[in-house]
Amino acid sequence: MKALAGRADAPYFPDHGDDRYRVRHYDLELEYRVGPNRLGGTARLSAVAVDRLDRLALDFGAFRIGKVLVDGTPARFRHRHGKLHVTPSRPIGREAAFTVEVRYTGNPSPVSSHWGGLGWEQLTDGSIVAGQPIGAPSWFPCNDRPDDKARYRIAVTTASAYEVVANGRLMARRRVGATTTWVYEQGEPMATYLASVQIGRYQFLELDGPVPQHVYYPSAAEPRVRHDFGRQGAMVAAFTQLFGPYPFGAYTVVVADDELEIPVEAQGMSIFGTNHVDGERGQERLIAHELAHQWFGNSLTLASWRDIWLHEGFATHAEWLWSEASGGESAAVHAGRWHARLSQEPRDLVLADPGPRRIFDDRVYKRGALTLHALRRIVGDDAFFQTMREWTAGHRHGTVTTAEFTALAGRIAGRPLDAFFTTWLREKALPPLP
Questions:
Q1: What is the model's pLDDT at position 260?
Q2: CATH 2.60.40.1730 is right for the domain spanning 21-191
Q3: d(CA 232, CA 371)
Q4: 367 and 314 in contact (C-beta within 8 Å)?
């Protein structure tokens, strides 16, 4: 059974997640009609109780609930304010395995948040899921906390004119009449916010590289897609050398046939808009950023949202490393430029605890990357990249904390780094670069 994490993350999103149980597996059977944006589903959760459960809570959006079963027996439920409270016919004992089945229908809509709508979003002709950090309940009932990682089976039935892309390996594709069912399995543990389904009229191509790389894109964008993602295989190879083996069986890119504000990472997958491909590799840093999240964010997932720099700082730093490896500006040049810019910004953010409204503040990204660049300078390349590789290997497909990273860095450096990390992670003032 997964180790129980504390509620350190409660002040950020206290209305999400239930720490009294852990989900081992989600089995999602979905039917989706694109035009009316109509979703019907059956979600089966296999879980283990941490404590005795007289009732349990799932995070879930505004769907009509047809039935709820616990261990195959109908259960009472109450659904309001984004929570599905379930009362089984008999209590579930501590450390007992159990299943919950929820049958539902409705029109999926994004979860409201400080950053706008999150989760399932209808496109001009299709849909995407952009779930970070609390958008997963927009399309399936879940225990929506990042430290409760589980395996998934996702089956989607929709009109045969559309391609369906979800996390993991495509296990089956069955056409019956005018509809096709796509079945994906995600064998590595995954946080709820990283679960994703993309639906659209896409073409498909494979890229060369050290791991299988699949790209789905609208046909009109093909020349731009082929050029802009043409160095992604080399990028995978470079990151594998720097960070350790790519953590999943394949990597999928979806270029949605709409403009998106920002690219989105999911486990084993990244989603871009047509505005992110210009045929000139003008957004290649974003391709590097989303790819790096497969190590930092998807394989290694924060245990608490306060540690978001472990995702975004590392992925931003990877942009600089790719620039350096591909013959562009060195990481030192990028670091110097961003240090100068951040020195002009307000000094009111603590990197290791930015607060729930600031987890996507650009200073989290850039100061996080500067922290890593400063660490590289004081310990040297050998110790720094050994730290990165041991970090990804030691926590592969698990959850991580800032304290674990700083302890590892100090151990490999062979000397205390407490003062260094305090100034970069815990204090508001921006330290000088070493």
A1: 96
A2: yes
A3: 26
A4: no
Per-residue pLDDT tens digits for 244-266 = 999 999 999 999 999 999 999 99
DSSP letter string, 369-382: HHHHHHHHHHH-HH
Asked if residue 8 has pLDDT above 60, the reply is no
Could you tell me which residues are beta bridge partners of residue 45?
26, 100
Closest CA to 44 of 130, 150, 189, 169: 150
Locate 382 and state its tokens: 């050998």
* pLDDT value for 7: 43
Gyration radius from the chain CA atoms: 22
Q: Cβ contacts of residue 30 below 8 Å, gap of 6+?
A: 39, 40, 41, 139, 140, 154, 155, 156, 157, 197
309: nearest Cα among 392, 349, 368, 350: 368
> What CATH topology corresponds to 203-294?
Zincin-like (3.30.2010)
The string of pLDDT tens digits covering residues 192-221 is: 999 999 999 999 999 999 999 999 999 999
Q: How far apart are alpha carbons 390 and 243 in whole angstroms?
A: 8
The top-level CATH class assigned to 302-426 is mainly alpha
Is pLDDT of 3 > 50?
A: no
Which pTM does this prediction carry?
0.96
Query: What residue spans in the chain does CATH classification 3.30.2010.30 cover?
Result: 203-294
